[in-house]
Amino acid sequence: MSGDRPLRADARRNRERVLAVAYEVFAAEGLSVPVDEIARRAGVGAGTVYRHFPTKEALYEAIVLDRVDRLVGRARDLAAVADPAEAFYGFFTFMTDEGATDKGLAEALAGAGFDIETAAPGAERAFMDAIATLLARAQAAGVVRADLTAADVKTLMVGCQAMQRYRGAAALGPVLAVVRDGLRPDRPAEP
Amino acid sequence: MSGDRPLRADARRNRERVLAVAYEVFAAEGLSVPVDEIARRAGVGAGTVYRHFPTKEALYEAIVLDRVDRLVGRARDLAAVADPAEAFYGFFTFMTDEGATDKGLAEALAGAGFDIETAAPGAERAFMDAIATLLARAQAAGVVRADLTAADVKTLMVGCQAMQRYRGAAALGPVLAVVRDGLRPDRPAEP
DNA sequence: TGGCAACCGGGGCGAGCGTTCCGTATAGTA
DNA sequence: TACTATACGGAACGCTCGCCCCGGTTGCCA
């Protein structure tokens, strides 16, 4: 296919500008922003965007994969934390906050307008594995109910991000507290 | 404005067919289904749809308001149930199930593509009041944590509907159990 | 510095969708 | 049955958006 000859300097510059702008715009407005708008804000023609990313979905992919990598990295950092509860709940909170900040990422995780699992099964799997690791440790320590799977936890994260999008990020404390408390195992019924 | 002279028989028939089809289609596919598609399935021209509903949003409105009325009715029925916990949690479950069945309603409640609060403030208020009534009784009985407002509960319902849409309705039991358990007040710490 | 390949910009095309218009058909009435 | 207000169908319009193309420009190397 494409012998990847090094890019010319201006091409490289433009490619990076497009990526940087798309980062911000997708985070702020979601994945439905027109390509022309991204091109305009990057000070570039639409054709230039399509030369670097053959399709709008390819642009999604470049950005979302980077974001997911970041999430996985964060999960791995937290896996090194001593307290299993702090590690698991820290990641959970990080995820919901991220969803409030980055609209495009939240949409991608929820499968709206872009399907990670099809586009990059590897990234999706790494993400699920990272959740599974934190979850297993938390369950072994008895700080998360034992009947939950990693898929359940991801579903809950998606739901929490939807709540963030629905209501502002502010004054969402009690709502997220409900979910966090629900994750804890039933305390033994009073004797 | 329009002196509402009675409709001609065929007009009345068509209007009802359009409404019936739109009900099903919006529930199954969501609010983004094209008007032409609805007209086609109703065996009617697009112009006919627009004569009865001046705008696509007006068609949303007719349907969503009817659905919301149904929800409010259900809430009022449950308000008559003796057990406050059964009443509140029964409504919560009803809502999440409804969101799984009726995609269009879920989108409307979440404010995606149609804004109930602007289109029909009355219906929105009746809905919130219905929640508030069930919530207050449940809180007074000590079966729901006291720091939650009706808006918080609605936010949680929207989030649970998003979870339903994300994962299938099947195998969502543990996930919804997390939220339901989180709604309960903290049991007193062991003495 | 000259020449060529690589790259750029932005106008244009086609598809999808909400909405409108108008010639035709039909229900209701005398 | 004949007449008219009313309603119908679906072609057409305008707009948005993803994507392509071509005439002009510019980085790179000899």
Summarize the structure.
2 copies of one chain form a homodimer. The first copy, chain A, has helices at residues 9-29, 35-42, 46-52, 56-79, 84-101, 103-110, 116-119, 121-140, 150-166, 173-183.
CATH architecture of the largest domain in chain A: Orthogonal Bundle
The helix content of chain A is over 70%
The N- to C-terminal Cα distance of chain A equals: 70 Å
Q: Oligomer, anyone?
A: homodimer
Mean pLDDT of chain A: 94
Biggest chain pair interface: A-B, 31 and 31 residues
Order of helices and strands of chain A: HHHHHHHHHH
Number of alpha- plus pi-helical segments of chain A: 10
Instruction: Report the biggest beta sheet of chain A as strand number plus sense, adding barrel if it closes.
Output: none
> What is the name of the CATH class of the largest domain in chain A?
Mainly Alpha
